[in-house]
Amino acid sequence: MKVLIAGGAGFIGSTVASACLDSGIVPVILDNLVTGRREFTTDRIFYEGDIADAALLDAVFADHPDIEAAIDCAALIVVPESVADPLRYYTENVAKGIQFLGHLRRNNCRRLLFSASASIYATGDDFTVDEGSPVDPLSPYARTKAVFETALRDIAAAGEMQVASLRYFNPIGADPTMRTGLQVRRPTHALGKMVEAMTTGEKFMVTGVDWPTRDGSGIRDYVHVWDLAQAHIKALRRFDELVATGDTPGYQVVNLGTGTGTTVRELLSAFEAVTGRPLPSVETGRRPGDNAGSYTRSERAAKLLGWRPQHSLEEGIRHTLQWFERRDRVLSAGD
Ligand SMILES: NC(=O)c1ccc[n+]([C@@H]2O[C@H](COP(=O)([O-])OP(=O)(O)OC[C@H]3O[C@@H](n4cnc5c(N)ncnc54)[C@H](O)[C@@H]3O)[C@@H](O)[C@H]2O)c1
Predict the structure, then answer these.
(1) Per the residue annotation, which of 141, 168, 222, 251 is the catalytic one?
(2) Is the pLDDT of residue 334 over 60?
(3) Is the pTM here over 0.90, yes or no?
(4) Cα 216 to chain center, whole Å?
(5) What distance in angstroms lies between residue 203's CA and the mean position of ligand 1's atoms?
(6) What are the distances in angstroms from CA 174 to CA 39, 167, 253?
(7) What are the pLDDT digits (tens) for 105-136?
(8) Which of 39, 50, 43, 44 is nearest to 72 (CA)?
(9) Cα separation of 114 and 20, whole Å?
(10) Residue 141's closest CA among 192, 86, 91, 184?
């Protein structure tokens, strides 16, 4: 099997590409390298360019007429940036995404796995959500993801494409063999901030301690990126059956999380247990645009994909630390 991975030079896309290679699926990577890294495409079939570039997409399919499905991981993902420049986010994540769908369809590629986001969910009373839970995206970034999903459902309902939207929770870790990992030097999520605090000797900031969670800090569902990648392999292998099960014919939504909520304070304890050292922390106020968070209660991924995460929170932390130790050797150029 051969698949097109848009955004395949990014954190999640490159991990999915590695998982494809390990399972005998040939990935064809398309990425404009706006945040992705050329180093992640070494020894892989790679086209540098934009998902909206009609001529480039036609060339990709002319070279690889045997592509059976596409995975769309191409997007801008930084929440504060999306608040400052929503036009750019709607252009890249929505307008160009729609053009990309047209290019896929013109080239008769009608199967799509979409990198959707659990950040679109409204926080429920008990912090758990499933695929039918209400949606209330709080940032322009999250709204671009919700808007695009809505378009995908309409397009699938009309029989123009078949789509599975995979709603990721909070990916951590790296490819366990360390081919790829998070390319960003200073990630803004809690685990990234812990690694940074450990490295610089500064205190880790627990941002928000008055959420209505069990210990007041925000709650998340940290899922290992290698487990996420494996879910894509399973979804590719049973794609037609998967999309046939949706309420909308040809369209299905699947939460990809562990089903366990972890608060920031619990993540900090796990981090300290993995490193064997205390990490000094300080409590501060909520960050603008944050919410209490959520974790999945859905069994749909287990039922429809036969997928359950295999890696623990501690393994996710360990692989994150290993990756950051190695990052500067893999990513030689620039920052
Ligand atoms: N990282 C998370 O926490 C998370 C959570 C839920 C969902 N997602 C979704 O997963 C997907 C991948 O996220 P990631 O964390 O790997 O981010 P990333 O920034 O590492 O990867 C995105 C990739 O897309 C490429 N890209 C962006 N716009 C493009 C365009 N117009 N044409 C071609 N390439 C383009 C970038 O160069 C990059 O390689 C995104 O759709 C994101 O919304 C991410």
Answers:
(1) 141
(2) no
(3) yes
(4) 26
(5) 29
(6) 15, 19, 24
(7) 999 999 999 999 999 999 889 999 999 999 99
(8) 50
(9) 16
(10) 86
